[in-house]
Amino acid sequence: MVLAVAKRENEGWLNVDSIDNFPCADLRTIDQLWVKYSDGRFGFSVQKRIYQGLGGTRSYDEKIWKAFGDKVGWRKDHWLDGWLYYKDITYDKKAPEGHLPIIGDRFNIWGGWRLFGGCWCVSSLASKLVDCNL
């Protein structure tokens, strides 16, 4: 749904521009659905709280990005820097708080997540959530 709203279905991931231009009303609705149906465990606003709690800002900081990945369960064992592949993401309520949603279908920083802007997208998303009062 997020990719359809952003018109990025062919790419399969969001970039900074698509996040910056994402309609606040749609972002709010999607976030509210995640928060409601996960009993407050998942959602963009949950990720924002975690990211900012670690000191995250719109500027990329590798240490904070890795700490965020550790906290939400996107990094394990630190093999190849520890970032999970998309296929290894957990899709149930037992996942760590903030584990979902994922903003693309290519998810491993070593093999490409960084190339697709993953770390910059999370910081941009946090800023967008502030702009949208989420």
Automatic annotation (TrEMBL):
A GO CC term attached to the entry: outer membrane-bounded periplasmic space
Lineage top rank: taxon: Bacteria
One MF term in the entry's GO annotations: tetrapyrrole binding
Domain GUN4-like: start-end pairs: 3-105
Coiled-coil annotated spans: none
Protein name as catalogued: GUN4-like domain-containing protein
Species assigned in the record: Trichormus variabilis SAG 1403-4b
